[in-house]
Specification:
The complex is a heterotrimer of chains A (167), B (669) and C (305). Chain A is an all-alpha fold and 167 residues long. Chain A is built from 9 helices and no strands. Chain A has 2 domains: 96 residues, Fumarate Reductase Iron-sulfur Protein, Chain B, domain 2, CATH 1.10.1060.10; 56 residues, no CATH class. Among the domains of chain B are: 124 residues, Rossmann fold (3-Layer(aba) Sandwich), CATH 3.40.50; 162 residues, 3-Layer(bba) Sandwich (FAD/NAD(P)-binding domain); 58 residues, Alpha-Beta Plaits (2-Layer Sandwich). Chain B is 26% helix and 24% strand. The longest helix of chain B is centred in the last third of the chain and has 21 residues. Classes of the chains: A mainly alpha (167), B alpha/beta (669), C alpha/beta (305). At the A-C interface, helix 3, helix 5, helix 6, helix 7 and helix 8 of A face helix 1, helix 2, helix 3, helix 9 and helix 10 of C.
């Protein structure tokens, strides 16, 4: 691997821009990876290893890797990190980079569509189940609230998500 | 009429790169009373200094202004130079056009040059009114105080004593020895710690020039370099040390228990106890906080009489002592006794503590088999709670797998951001000692980095790898508690980028080095400062490692920052040499830049007295009324009293009113 | 009665409305009136807005919080993920620069985030505001003799610097254990108690990895505690335990019967005597036997005369 300072700068600036502000504080101690459920489950490019690749300038080379989408945002990493890196925010910053380049799985598109159309990332018709347990069939949420749905769509349309052309 | 010479320095390009030095020199010539204005590439060089000296010798100038860098570093040089040329060295003023000029206004050359001219004008204004001042000297008490009886304190005390100076060695615990006495072996030689330490302890205790005061603490310190007065509190031992033979029978009979600090809490000691078998002095102490006053034997009361036998009912400790050193009927003062001493220099060598495992919530601190490295050291020590056998605290069984975790609380923004420096080495030491004794033991060491920077240290580390001890690069993130008090280690191998999980029988945490909580009170008593990492602050991080901002007060060992034994001893000997300086010279110089009361003008209002941070002012009667008087050796010339005096009766030599007003006038022109 | 906004999220009202019903039944009895947050949406889930843009995340989250602010109530939620998303968004909005930007987005829908409503987890409300003492008072049945393995989940525990209510030691959480012990049951410790169950983003990205992690957790529970039931305060964890145990059994990855799993408020509702058909009706694992046991006559708490 060549050390290309321009690529490193670009990677770091991109990550900081998407919210992973403290990426440079990482000393590669590995405590985050020791407690990460994603690493434990076998995702190869999370926490310490992801930060290493990013600090090496490998932004485009790893854009297709799905490990970052296995991050649970549980923040065990943030809790144990001795240098205040908040690794979960670096992983999510990388995710945002991937998402804005449309490098995420197609199954995830369903969630975004659900969110836009009903205000719920996970949606299925609840009326039968709710009736069964004695609740009003319609939820008091955006799923059955026109005004609420319009508000959410406005927020999404006015955001970078709206610019992706998914809706 | 003063004859002021102004000398402007280029300082290479440090100043000249921003400021137009020639223009400043030209400007200086126009100032009142300036007879000569010169410039040079480096004023502090031989040729630069010679330039000034020549003008003085030729009678051209009698006040000198150098416009250059900072008086903090260079004032003494120029003062010495003009003194050599025959001019009073206090007829010198420095204009700082570097730190306050070129260094801070690097982007504004015009502005920096204009400011430099103003600074020079101010210095010239003051220089015109400078008066000659004379250094004063006071006698020095030829004695030293060393606070702390660990390896650092002992080394410093021995150096001072061997140089011929009377030395007091004060230690708060019943015996000297410090943390080194708790160690089993020392790296990288694997010397038995007690074997190399105890000869020094004995030598110090028996040295004709050393008076060792153990179970004693510094209560109060007054004075200044060469003339310190200290009150040492000899804490109440409740045992007559002139009779105590150190047999330990009292401890054998005492029923009261508390955690043994020497064994890092792994075992109990009695309220009556001897600190450890090789204690120096080997004397018993009764810890009244944990004494249960058995048989109703309150201190200072007469014993009840047994109705049947007619004999007094004594406490077990009293009955056990064959030397009659314990007598609870005596009215022992719980506050102990004060011993007042006078010394010329003080060396602080109060050492450190290690963080408790309870701070690290992710490391299952509730488990008995998670211990600190100091606790492990006590377990493998022959004088420890298991007589040197490596046994798990929970069930006293032999472990099969041991885990070492580095950097607990060090290099960590939640606790201490610094590296504790010697933990890597002692972890490797403990691992090597255990592997030697139990070759089948599985030893897993988890580091972020391995720091082995001393002499013989890297070879010690690679030797450990050769012995079959496992090294993993990656900080342990947590421990999970398994049945039978085992631990599951959640770790990570960075080198192969894989997670690690395994069962361990015993987990050893290398917890961070820090100062004990009583360090704050000691610092307040002595006037010590703390650095950003909360260790005692040295005078200069590079060039003043043993001195402090208070003259006559020196630092040695871990109280100044984490370090291993060789560095502690080196620093202790350095501190001793520095401390011996004033003692050997026999006198110390008092700076004449201090305040003085014009007694006739003093109205006796007393406002200045409580304002002085150095308690240098007292009221003395003069012509039938009280007037303020300043003790010149205590005054630091801060100027608070001078500005507060409503009668204007106090003058601060070197910062007199006429001088300051001239500066203001020049700056606002 | 103290009013607290009930933030439902997605899974609870849509997939597991019996959990929602259990909230609505038990809280009034315990002195808390759950208030509906009309028009609340997805928090939004980690895989949606938070994965695209920080400010959009904060905008959608804060919109939900403003619904509670308008009614001058705090928020409680039963889903750990929602709790994490909302709490972290609120934390990000303490930065005044970001708050300005997000409020500019909210202005387009006539809303303004003020930061006056606190975000709690249902478990926090039960443990700190209601208290185990009051819970004990309101029990109809005692669960004495039952062994419960608890699953606290991830987001309620970390990162500690962002939450209003925290455990003393997040690596050894005690709140859920104490809530379960209040019903009379025993709650033994197991080594992987604070471990992740594998639900959430992990499961949708790679089912096999998620199941691998989940199996480790399940084995730790079975081997170390042999629990009669599993109780959680996370709706996501509930779904994982309920769905994936039968899946593993089908594949032959585990050789024991799936352990019945409840959301804590369901257990409490049952112990208080509410109708299982309303509060514990929807699950893949058959819970009928244990429900019968819980609501059996010999568990009735006798009044002391």
């Amino acid at each position: 691997m060549l050390i290309d300072q321009n690529k490193i700068n670009e990677a770091v600036t991109t990550i900081i821009g998407y919210g992973g502000e403290n990426i440079r504080q990482c000393v590669q101690c590995g405590a985050c990876s020791a407690v990460c459920p994603g690493v434990k489950a076998g995702f190869p490019l999370l926490c310490r290893n992801l930060i290493r690749h990013l600090l090496n300038g490998q932004l485009e080379e790893i854009i297709e890797d799905s490990s970052s989408w296995g991050c649970q945002a549980c923040n065990r990493c943030t809790e144990v990190c001795p240098q205040g890196v908040r690794p979960q925010e670096v992983v999510f910053a990388f995710r945002r980079y991937q998402a804005n380049q449309l490098a995420f799985s197609t199954s995830s598109i369903t969630s975004q569509m659900n969110l836009f159309e009903t205000g719920h990332a996970v949606y299925l018709d609840p009326k039968a189940a709710r009736k069964k347990v004695g609740l009003p069939q319609e939820t008091p949420t955006s799923a059955f609230d026109d005004k609420a749905r319009k508000e959410i769509q406005t927020l999404i349309n006015n955001s970078p998500m709206g610019e992706l052309g998914l809706f | 009429m003063a004859k002021v010479g102004v000398y402007v320095c280029h300082c290479g390009s440090n100043i000249a790169g921003v400021i137009d030095v020639a223009a400043v020199r030209d400007f200086a010539e126009t100032l009142p009373d300036v007879v000569i204005a010169r410039k040079d590439l480096f004023m502090c060089s031989d040729s630069g200094q010679e330039m000034v000296k020549q003008d003085i010798r030729n009678g051209l100038v009698d006040r000198v202004v150098v416009a250059a860098c900072t008086p903090r570093t260079h004032e003494p040089i120029f003062r010495a130079a003009i003194e050599k040329a025959g001019l009073n060295k206090y007829l010198f003023e420095m204009a700082n056009i570097r730190d306050q000029g070129s260094w801070v206004h690097g982007h504004d050359h015009e502005g920096a040059t204009a400011k430099a001219k103003k600074i020079v004008a101010s210095a010239v204004g003051k220089a015109r009114y400078l008066e000659p001042l004379e250094d004063k000297f006071v006698e020095v008490t030829d004695a030293a105080l060393v606070i702390g009886g660990g390896i650092g304190g002992i080394s410093a005390a021995l150096e001072l004593a061997n140089m011929g100076h009377k030395t007091y060695l004060v230690e708060k615990r019943p015996s000297i020895g410090g943390v080194m006495a708790q160690l089993d072996k020392t790296f990288p030689t694997n010397d038995c710690s007690a074997c190399i330490l105890t000869p020094m302890m004995v030598e110090a205790y028996n040295h004709p020039n050393i008076e060792t005061l153990t179970y004693a603490e510094v209560d109060e310190v007054e004075g200044y370099i060469g003339n310190f007065k200290a009150k040492i509190r000899r804490k109440q031992t409740y045992v007559d040390w002139s009779k105590c033979t150190g047999c330990g029978d009292c401890a054998g009979k005492c029923p009261s228990k508390t955690a043994d600090e020497f064994n890092a809490g792994l075992s109990d000691r009695r309220a009556a106890y001897i600190m450890f078998p090789q204690a120096v002095p080997k004397k018993a102490v009764i810890d009244m906080e944990h004494c249960i006053n058995c048989a109703g034997r309150e201190i200072g009361t007469l014993p009840k009489i047994n109705e049947k036998t007619g004999r007094p009912v004594l406490a077990p400790c009293e009955r056990a002592c064959p030397a009659e050193a314990i007598n609870r009927s005596l009215a022992h003062d719980p506050a102990g006794a004060i011993q007042e001493i006078e010394v010329g220099a003080i060396v602080v060598a109060t050492g450190y503590q290690v963080m408790d495992k309870g701070w690290f919530k992710e490391m299952a601190p509730a488990s008995p088999n998670v211990i600190t490295a100091l606790q492990l050291e006590r377990i493998i020590s022959a004088t420890g709670p298991t007589e040197g056998k490596l046994l798990r605290p929970s069930d006293k069984e032999k472990p099969h797998t041991i885990t070492f975790v580095s950097c607990m609380g060090s290099r960590d923004e939640h606790f201490h951001t610094y590296c504790s420096r010697f933990c890597c080495m002692y972890m490797i030491k403990q691992a090597r000692l255990i592997k030697e004794k139990y070759p089948d033991m599985v030893i897993n060491m988890h580091f972020i980095d391995v720091r082995a920077a001393g002499k013989g240290y890297d070879e010690y580390y690679t030797g450990a790898r050769k012995m079959g001890i496992n090294f993993f690069k990656g900080k342990v993130g947590g421990l999970e508690m398994l049945p039978e008090d085992k631990l599951r280690v959640l770790a990570y191998d960075m080198e192969s980028a894989t997670g690690i999980e395994y069962q361990s029988d015993l987990v050893v945490l290398a917890t961070a080095v820090e100062l004990p909580p009583d360090a704050t009170a000691l610092a307040q008593k002595l006037g010590l400062q703390f650095c950003g990492s909360h260790f005692f602050r040295e005078l200069h991080p590079k060039l003043g490692p043993v001195e402090t901002a208070s003259e006559g007060l020196f630092l040695a060992g871990c109280c100044q920052g984490p370090k291993d034994i060789p560095d502690t001893v080196a620093q202790a000997k350095g501190a001793a040499a520095a401390a011996a300086g004033p003692l050997a010279r026999g006198r110390v110089r008092i700076d004449p830049i201090i305040s003085e009361v014009h007694t006739e003008q003093c109205s006796g209002c007393g406002i200045c007295v409580p304002l002085c941070p150095y308690h240098a002012i007292s009221m003395k009667t003069y012509a039938d009324s009280p007037r303020a008087q300043i003790e010149m050796s205590a005054c630091k010339g801060c100027g608070v009293c001078t500005s507060a005096c409503p009668s204007g009766a106090i003058v601060l030599h070197g910062y007199e009113e006429s001088q300051i007003f001239a500066q203001i006038e020049a700056l606002t022109a | 009665m103290e009013k607290i906004g009930l933030y439902l999220g997605c899974n609870i009202p849509l997939k597991a409305p019996d959990i929602e019903q259990s909230f609505r039944k038990i809280f009034p009895v315990l002195g808390i009136e759950p208030v509906d947050l009309q028009g609340a949406s997805c928090c939004p889930a980690w895989g949606t807005a938070p994965s695209f843009d920080l400010n959009t995340w904060c905008a959608i989250s804060s919109r939900n919080i403003t619904i509670a602010e308008e009614q001058e109530v705090d928020i409680m939620t039963g889903c750990n993920s929602c709790f994490g998303v909302l709490s972290e968004a609120k934390h990000f909005l303490e930065d005044q620069g970001r708050r300005k930007t997000v409020n500019a987005s909210l202005a387009a829908i006539n809303r303004e985030f003020k930061g006056t409503s606190d975000v709690y987890h249902v478990a926090h409300v039960l443990h700190r505001k209601v208290g185990t003492g009051k819970i004990r008072e309101k029990l109809k049945y005692s669960l004495d003799g039952l062994k419960i393995a608890v699953q606290t989940g991830c987001h309620a525990l970390w990162p500690t610097d962002v939450y209003k209510v925290r455990e003393d030691n997040p690596y050894y959480p005690t709140m859920l254990r104490e809530l379960c012990e209040a019903t009379g049951a025993t709650v033994p410790h197991y080594s992987r108690l604070e471990g992740c169950c594998g639900m959430g983003g992990m499961r949708s990205t790679d089912l096999e990895k998620s199941l691998g992690l989940f199996r480790e957790k399940l084995l730790s529970i079975k081997e170390e505690t042999d629990a009669d039931l599993i109780v959680t305060t996370c709706s996501s964890c509930f779904l994982q335990f309920d769905m994936s145990q039968p899946l593993l059994k089908e594949r032959g990855s585990i050789d024991f019967e799936p352990i019945p799993t409840f959301y804590y408020t369901q257990l409490l509702a049952l112990a208080m005597g509410f109708d299982p058909g309303q509060v514990a009706a929807i699950s893949q694992i058959d819970r009928s036997r244990i429900i019968q046991d819980i609501q059996s006559e010999n568990r009735l708490i006798k009044e002391v005369a």
